[in-house]
Amino acid sequence: MGVPLIRKHLLAAAASVILFAAPHAQAHESHDTNEAWRLFIADHTKPVVRAIDFSTGKELGSFETKGPASLTASASGQIIYATQSDDDFVNIIQSGIKFSDHGDHRDLDVSDVKLSGVTFEGKRPFHVVPHGDHAILFYDRGGKAEIINEAALLEDKADVRELDTLKPHHGVAVTMGRHILMSVPDTEVETKPDALPPRVGVRILDENNQQVGGIEKCTDLHGEAMSARLAAFGCKEGVLIAKPNGSDAPQLQMLAYPKDFPAGYTGTLLGGKTMQFFLGNYGEDKLVLIDPEDANPYRLVELPTRRVDFILDPANPKNAYILTEDGNLHVLDVLKGVISRSAKVTEPYSKDGHWRDPRPRLAVADGEIAITDPRHSLVRVVDPESLKETRTIAVEGMPFSIVAVGGSGASH
Hints:
Blueprint: H1 3-30, E1 32-43, E2 48-53, E3 59-64, E4 70-73, E5 79-84, E6 89-94, E7 97-101, E8 106-110, E9 114-121, E10 125-131, E11 134-139, E12 144-149, H2 150-154, E13 160-164, E14 173-176, E15 179-185, E16 199-205, E17 211-217, E18 224-227, E19 230-234, E20 238-245, E21 248-256, E22 269-271, E23 278-281, E24 286-290, E25 298-302, E26 307-312, E27 319-324, E28 328-333, E29 338-344, E30 362-365, E31 368-373, E32 378-382, E33 389-394, E34 399-411
Antiparallel strand pairs: 1-2, 1-34, 2-3, 4-5, 5-6, 6-9, 7-8, 10-11, 11-12, 12-13, 14-15, 15-16, 16-17, 18-19, 19-20, 20-21, 22-23, 23-24, 24-25, 26-27, 27-28, 28-29, 30-31, 31-32, 32-33
Signal peptide: 1-27
InterPro entries: AztD-like (IPR047697), Quino_amine_DH_bsu (IPR011044)
Keywords: Signal
C-alpha cells in the first residue's frame, strides 16, 4: 500500500475537523452538551438482545427474539437489526439515540430503547448492509433481498422494495446511487438439496430492477464494505472495487492479489470512514490493507495466530483492533501497516470447532474497546492506548454479538 496516499487522505480528514472546530466550540457556549453511548448485545444461545448503558453498565432493556441473533446497526445508529438466520426472522430495535445535523453543531436526542412492532420474515436472512437512509436485507434461501427504508421503521412502519436474487444463494447486495450491486449465483451448477450454489460474480441493477450490462467475475464472492463512495467485494481473484459514475452504472475494477502473495483470499472487509481504504482478512492469520487509488494497492499484515474478530476505530481512523485466538488484542496502525502494540485481554478462544461457537466480538464505544467474553458473562472494557482493562460489565448468559451506538451533541 502506498503510505503517502493514505496519509494524504488522513490530512484531508484532519483539515475538515480543524475547520469544524471553531464553530463547534461556539455552539457549546450556547447549548448544553449531551453524551450517550449504548451497547446492544445478543446472547449466543438464548433468544434475547440486551441494551446496556455503556457509562453505567445498567441494563436499559431486554428483548426476546425467536432465536439467537446477529446484530447490525443502521448507518444513523437509530435502528438495530437483530437477524435470526436459523429462525427465518428479523427483529427491529430502536436504539433511542438520534443525531440531527445543524451545520455548526449537531443535536443529540436520547429516548428509551424500544422493540419495534415491525418484523421481517423470509428463508435464512443473513447479510444486512446499511447505507445512508436504508439497509438491504439478503435472504440466502428466499431468492430475494429487500431494501428497507429507515424513516419508516422509526415510525413503526415497513417501506420495502423487493429484489430478485436469480436463485437462492449466500449473497449480498449494496446500493450505489440509483443502482444496486448484487452477487450472482451459479445458475447452472447442480447442488445437493440442502446446499446453495457458489457465487460467481456481481451484476448491476437499475432503479427498475433491470440488469445493466453483463456480469463481472468474482469467484466465491464473500464480504463487502463501503469506504467514502467506493464499494468493495472479496473474491478469489482479488478485491472487486465499484466506483460511482454519475448517472450511469458504476464502474467495476478487479484489484488482483499480488503474484508474490501466499495462497489465500479475502472474505471479510471493513471500510474506512474518514479515510478511503479497506481492511480485509487474507486467510485466517493475515490481514490486507487496500488502497484502491494506489498503483500497489495491497499491504499484507501477518498475525501471530488466527484472528477471532477485527474492527476499525470510527473516531481514530488510523487504528484497527484485532483479537487473535491466543486472547491477545493487537492495535494495527493502518498508516504504517504494522501492529504497534499488543496485550492479552481474554483467555484463549480457539478457532477450531464450529464457526458459530461462542467467541469474543469487538465494538468501539466512547473511545474504548468493548469485548464480549461469553465464557465469563462479561463485557471487558479496554483502553486502546495502554490496552489495559479499565472495567467490566456483567451481562447475563453468554454475551456474543455486539454493536455500539452513541456520541455527543448539543441538547436543548
